[in-house]
Every structure is written in structure tokens, then in C-alpha cells.
Design goal:
Strand 3 and strand 4 form a beta hairpin. The chain is built from ten helices and seven strands. It is an alpha/beta fold and 255 residues long. The strands form two sheets. A five-stranded mixed sheet has the order 2-1-5-7-6, with helices on both faces. The N and C termini lie far apart (44 Å). The structure holds uracil (URA).
Length: 255
């Protein structure tokens, strides 16, 4: 979705080069200041209010590392919400979620199941890019629990405004933040689970993990399963497919 024209963004800073400006030695989440973004979330929030508020977020140290806050994209009322981990290098530069290589794979999968990206709400658990320098590149670093906690009010606010029917967690970070700390994507991917956040929540693999699969045949199989998981979530939005209760019963029968 294009950036909403009526929302004014702060000027986009040039992306920092490795070693420039950002203090990579800072112990994330331990500095003075608010532990979470809760106090920054506007009352009676709309996406148009949340976006500029999140742009000023300094609830953890990641604002110093990233170029800008990468807020979610989509319409309130979108029935399907996709939640990734954190923006990557391209997302950080463009200020939009899932616009890099993982985003292209996601777009292809959505297209294959007949969904336009503009029909879904796409966001991340953490809204700033956390990275470490490697030569001239900025390498992704997994966010810590305090960073995820600090950012969580933004995601909760997005969920409250969008009110999705089904949320799909892309990868373990999102699944462990939204479903259960001990959730294992390898064990429970594709299961539709009731949740306080939405009628159903599901987790699948992160598209980046598919891009990292070196074996072509395995990668294609991974993409096929990923697409099937998204199709199952889309069917659940339409009220088709198995209910969680039915899944639980068929699981019992298989034991
Ligand atoms: N990976 C994510 O988890 N989110 C993005 O926006 C891009 C890559």
C-alpha cells in the first residue's frame, strides 16, 4: 500500500553505514527511559494517529540503529494480518514492511492464493531494524525479549484498530511473541489456534528462511508449504476449512 498521503512523516534520515553513529555496544533495553512504548500510544488510536506517534518512538535503543520506524501497512478492517519479526535492510531504507527479498517471496505466495497485498495488513513485532556491520553490509540481528516487549504496545494497538479475523505469525519470533514463548514453528506450523488477539492465530515459517534454503528442491517444497499455510489462513478468514476444535479432535484420533 502506498504511504497514506494525509500522514506527515518526519524527514527520513540517510541509512547509517556500518560503524557510523550508532553505538553497537549499548546494552539494549537497559538504558533509562520507558521500558515500553505504552505511554506513547495515543488514546482512541487510528492508524493515522499511530503511525506518526510510532515514528517518534524511543522506548528502546533500536531507534538509534534504524533509519526510521517501519510501521505496519494496510487498512483497518483487513481480515488477515501478517506479522513478521522486524524490518530488514530494504524495509529500513524505504520505511515499509516486507519490501525486500522476503517481501517479494511473500507477495508471490499471496498472489498465488489470489490475495492482493493491499487486502491484508502487514506488520512486524519490532518496528526498527536491528543490525550489525559486516563489511559494507548491515546484517540482521534477532531482537531481544526487552526490545520485543518495548515495541509490543504498537502491535497491540495495530491489532485493536485493524481487528483482524486471522493473524499469521511469520517465523518463530512472531509466533513466540503472539502465541506462546515455547512455540516451535517446526512442530506446530499451520495450526489454527484460538487467541485473545483474533479469532484464530497461526504460525508458519519466515519467508527469509526459505530464501536461505540452499537446496533448490527443498526451497521449492518450502515455498509450496508456506503458500499452503497462507491459503489455509485465507480459507479460515472466509470461514472455510477446519475449525480449531475439529483440528484438535482429528489430532486426538491420530495419537
Ligand atoms: N523480515 C521481517 O520479518 N519483516 C520485514 O518487514 C522484512 C523482513
Amino acid at each position: 500500500m502506498p504511504n497514506q498521503g494525509s500522514v506527515r512523516h518526519p524527514p527520513v534520515r540517510r541509512a547509517r553505514r556500518p560503524g557510523e553513529g550508532a553505538n553497537l555496544e549499548l546494552p539494549f533495553g537497559s538504558a533509562a527511559g520507558p521500558d515500553t512504548a505504552a505511554a506513547l500510544v495515543p488514546e482512541h488510536a487510528t492508524l493515522a494517529l499511530l503511525r506518526p506517534a510510532a515514528a517518534c518512538c524511543r522506548a528502546c535503543h533500536l531507534w538509534e540503529l534504524g533509519t526510521q520506524t517501519v510501521f505496519g501497512e494496510g487498512q483497518p478492517g483487513a481480515k488477515l494480518m501478517l506479522v513478521g519479526e522486524q524490518p530488514g535492510d530494504m524495509e529500513d531504507r524505504q520505511g515499509r514492511p516486507f519490501v525486500g527479498p522476503a517481501g517479494r517471496l511473500l507477495d508471490q505466495a499471496l498472489e498465488e492464493i489470489g490475495l492482493d497485498r493491499r487486502e491484508v495488513y502487514i506488520t512486524n513485532v519490532v518496528k526498527h531494524f536491528k543490525w550489525t556491520p559486516r563489511g559494507t553490509r548491515r546484517l540482521h540481528v534477532t531482537p531481544t525479549a526487552p526490545e520485543i516487549t518495548a515495541c509490543r504496545p504498537w502491535l497491540d494497538a495495530e491489532v485493536a484498530v485493524v481487528r483482524p479475523e486471522v493473524i499469521v505469525c511469520l517465523g518463530a519470533t512472531a509466533a513466540q511473541a503472539l502465541i506462546d514463548r515455547s512455540f516451535r514453528v517446526t512442530v506446530s506450523r499451520g495450526e489454527l489456534l484460538p487467541s485473545p488477539l483474533a479469532r484464530l492465530v497461526m504460525a508458519t515459517v519466515h519467508p527469509s528462511s526459505l530464501l536461505r534454503t540452499p537446496d533448490e528442491e527443498q526451497r521449492q517444497e518450502g515455498i509450496r508449504r508456506f503458500t499452503a499455510d497462507l491459503a489455509k489462513a485465507a480459507a479460515a478468514v472466509r470461514g472455510e476449512g477446519s475449525s480449531p476444535a475439529r483440528e484438535a479432535r482429528s489430532g486426538d484420533a491420530n495419537q
